[in-house]
Design a protein that fits this description.
- By secondary structure, the chain is α/β, with parallel strands linked by helices.
- Helix content is about 35%, strand content about 20%.
- It has a five-stranded mixed beta sheet, sandwiched between helices.
- Helix 1 packs parallel to helix 3.
- The longest helix is centred in the C-terminal third of the chain and has 19 residues.
- It is globular and about 45 Å long.
- The chain binds zinc ion (ZN) (2 copies).
Length: about 180
């Protein structure tokens, strides 16, 4: 079972912001969280035609770059991510697995030609981090529009949901932790 959640920061975020997000993550999943700054070379997962980075290849990179045994690892990048069938993704995760990734790129107001709002970006990022980690704990998407596990295609949809799981999703996490305890 995961004894720790590892947040690997490969973005420009300040540690103050990361510390705050780590508190939320710890509260939601109930296991310790560690943060480290890393610099990942993403050249080999860059798609020059799309001018974006392949999110699934990034997941694979996480799995062979970091020790993901007995933990859940999430990498934060500033680069714009995609999977081949979609224009972009805010993040991606292995369902009931160990690796997840999230991008700040489309969480920033400036991406949409709006005024910079760091507070807003940090809230969105927190939700997306909890969301992607939720998938690594086996959670699927939730229909509750306030639940962090609700899927979001647009930032406006991220803004509508909370950083926390609904009651059912919270229970799912507890059950998941309990059933993986002995492993
Ligand atoms: Zn999702
Ligand atoms: Zn839910």
């Amino acid at each position: 079972m995961s004894k720790v959640i590892r947040i690997y920061n490969s973005s420009d975020l300040q540690s103050r912001t990361l510390d705050r997000i780590a508190v939320t993550v710890r509260n939601v999943f109930g296991i310790p969280v560690s943060i480290s700054n890393v610099s990942l070379n993403l050249q080999d997962i860059y798609d020059s035609g799309r001018e974006q980075y392949n999110s699934t290849a990034l997941l694979a990179k996480i799995l062979h770059t970091f020790d993901t045994k007995d933990n859940k690892s999430i990498v934060i990048v500033d680069e714009d991510l995609f999977i081949p069938v979609l224009t972009f993704v805010f993040g991606e995760a292995q369902l009931d697995g160990s690796a997840a990734v999230v991008s700040t790129h489309r969480l920033k107001n400036q991406y949409y030609g709006l005024q910079t709002n760091d507070q807003m970006m940090h809230e969105r990022l927190e939700k997306e981090i909890v969301h992607e980690l939720g998938h690594t704990f086996g959670l699927y998407h939730c229909r509750d529009y306030e639940c962090v596990m609700k899927s979001s295609t647009y930032v406006e949809e991220i803004d509508l949901k909370k950083a926390l799981p609904c009651k059912a999703c919270r229970q799912f996490i507890v059950d998941y932790r309990n059933s993986h305890k002995s492993a």
